[in-house]
């Protein structure tokens, strides 16, 4: 009998998500970003979708730029509402676990040195947008990889609200992503300006960022 050897570059560490993680890693290696329609595992997608829909409206805080002390609202730039994911809910915990696996996979495969992860639910109501921006600035070495997941059924082109990823500052056209249920996008935070076009209906998503450890001496960054 011919023995079938499982082909895995990370023997002993593989999970059922490794197929997807491999595709994301390949995309990032080749083009710096990955757009994977409907790729988030169905069970996880459903748990997050249900959780986001049942979360009380008052749990949502008005979206701000940055965190903690520098948390300030800027309606000119973005008008969505956010809620940070702490892992207190079952769905939130599953999401954080899945991203911890992705982090460990990408570190082994691409040597990105991802150290921590932060993420929030976001809700763009009709008329909401997020203008063209970078998630991180060169040299500030904090956010390295951005990830976004979407939780919207039956999105059509007249609903607007696409994520547009631009190759560089000169790119006016970009690549549009329809925010459909289970679609995942990952991109290098310092490399790609991007924006969320005005949504014409409620748009639900999660945005997250992997950071490197930039702690020096007595300064702990990112904050614990
Ligand atoms: O929701 C999206 O498609 C992207 C959101 C975004 O760019 C951000 O929160 O920084
Ligand atoms: Fe962004």
Automatic annotation (TrEMBL):
Its cofactor is L-ascorbate. The keyword Repeat does not apply. Residues 110-212 form the Fe2OG dioxygenase domain. Keywords: Dioxygenase, Iron, Metal-binding, Oxidoreductase, Vitamin C. The keyword Iron applies. SMART domains: P4Hc. PROSITE patterns: FE2OG_OXY. This is 2OG-Fe(II) oxygenase.
């Amino acid at each position: 009998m011919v023995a079938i050897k499982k082909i895995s570059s990370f023997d002993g560490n593989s999970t059922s998500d490794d197929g997807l993680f491999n595709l994301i890693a390949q995309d990032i290696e080749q083009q710096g970003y990955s757009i994977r329609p409907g790729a988030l595992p169905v069970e996880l997608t459903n748990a997050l979708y249900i959780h986001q829909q049942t979360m009380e409206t008052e749990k949502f805080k008005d979206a701000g730029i940055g965190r903690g002390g520098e948390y300030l609202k800027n309606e000119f730039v973005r008008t969505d509402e956010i809620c940070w994911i702490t892992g207190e809910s079952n769905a939130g915990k599953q999401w954080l676990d899945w991203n911890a696996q992705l982090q460990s996979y990408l570190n082994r495969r691409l040597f990105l040195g991802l150290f921590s992860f932060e993420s929030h639910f976001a809700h763009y109501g009709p008329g909401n947008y997020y203008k063209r921006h970078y998630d991180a600035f060169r040299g500030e070495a904090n956010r390295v990889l951005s990830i976004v997941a979407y939780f919207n059924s039956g999105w059509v082109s007249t609903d607007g609200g696409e994520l547009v990823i631009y190759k560089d500052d000169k790119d006016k056209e970009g690549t549009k992503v329809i925010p459909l249920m289970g679609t995942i996008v990952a991109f290098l935070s310092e490399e790609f300006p991007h924006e969320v076009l005005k949504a014409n209906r409620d748009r639900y998503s999660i945005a997250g960022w992997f950071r490197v450890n930039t702690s020096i001496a007595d300064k702990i960054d990112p904050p614990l």
